[in-house]
Amino acid sequence: MAEGENAITNRDKVVTSFIAGAIAGSLAKTTIAPLDRTKINFQIHNEQFSFPKAVKFLVTSYKEHGLLSWWRGNTATMARVVPFASCQYAAHEHWKIILKVDTNERRKEHYFRTFLAGSLAGCTASALTYPLDVARARMAVSKPDRYRNIIEVFREIWRKEGPRHLYRGFAPTMLGVIPYAGASFFTYETLKRLRAEQTGSTELHPIERLVFGAVGGLFGQSSSYPLDIVRRRMQTAPLTGQNYTSILGTLIMVYKNEGLIGGLYKGLSMNWIKGPIAVGISFMTFDISSQAMQKALASRFWTRWRTA
What we know:
Layout: H1 2-7, H2 10-31, H3 33-44, H4 51-65, H5 74-98, H6 104-109, H7 111-141, H8 150-161, H9 170-199, H10 206-240, H11 247-258, H12 260-264, H13 268-298, H14 300-307
Helix pairs in contact: 2-5, 2-13, 5-7, 7-9, 7-10, 9-10, 10-11, 10-13
Family: Belongs to the mitochondrial carrier (TC 2.A.29) family.
Organism: Amblyomma americanum (Lone star tick)
Solcar repeats: 12-98, 109-194, 204-292
C-alpha cells in the first residue's frame, strides 16, 4: 500500500485504531462471555476449580435462569469493553509513534520500547475505564434481580461505599496490566514481524493473525493471573463479605486459605482456553478492520474528497 501509506497520517492511524478497537473488543468478549462469567464465579469463591464444576455451573445457570443467563452482565461488559478496547488500541498506536516503534524495523531494534508501548496502552485504557470493570464484576456475581442495569451499580456503590470504591482494586489491576498488555502486544507484534521477515510480505492470513494473537494472550494472561485474582476479590468484597483491603493482604489470605494453584492460579486452565481465543479474535479483528479503514482513507477518491 505504498500510495496509501503516504496518504495516511498519524492521526488517521490513531482514529482508525480507536474504531477498530471497539469492533474487535466487542466481538471477542461476546464470544467468550459464558466462560468469562464462569471464571469470575470461581475466582471470587473459595471453591476449587475443575472443568466438571465449570460445566455444572453453566448447566445450572441454564436450567435456573435460561440460556441468556450465560451472558448476564454482558451489557456491563460491553459498556466497559468497547471504550477499553478502543482506548487501548488507539493508545497503543499513539505510544508506538511516540516511542518510535511504529515500524517492523524499529521494533526489531527496540524490544523494550515495543514491550513498553503495550504496557502503557493497557495502563492508559485501564485508568480511563476502570469503574466500568468494577460494575461488570458486581453484576456478574450478584443475584439476577439485584441490578437492572449498570447505572444502578454505580448509584449503589456511590451511595453506600463512596466514590473512591469505584476504583477498588485499581492498584493490582495496574500491576497486572503492565506484564499482561506488554507481553500480549509484544508477542503479537514480534510474531508478525518474524513472519514478515520469513515471507518477505507484511500480508498475513486471518488464521495467522488469530494464532499469533492467541499466543500473545497466553503469555500475557499467564504472567499476570495472580493479580487478576486479587483484583476480582477486592472488587467484589462488599458482596461476598470478605475482608480484602490491600494487595499484599489479599495475596496472603488467598494463598493461606486456598493455596498457590487452587487459589492464586484458580481458573487459569480455563483462562488458557478462553484467553487465547478472545485475544486472538481481538487482534485478528482489529488488524482486518483497521487496515480496511486505512485503505479506504488512502484511496484516491477519499484523499481528493478530504483535500477538496
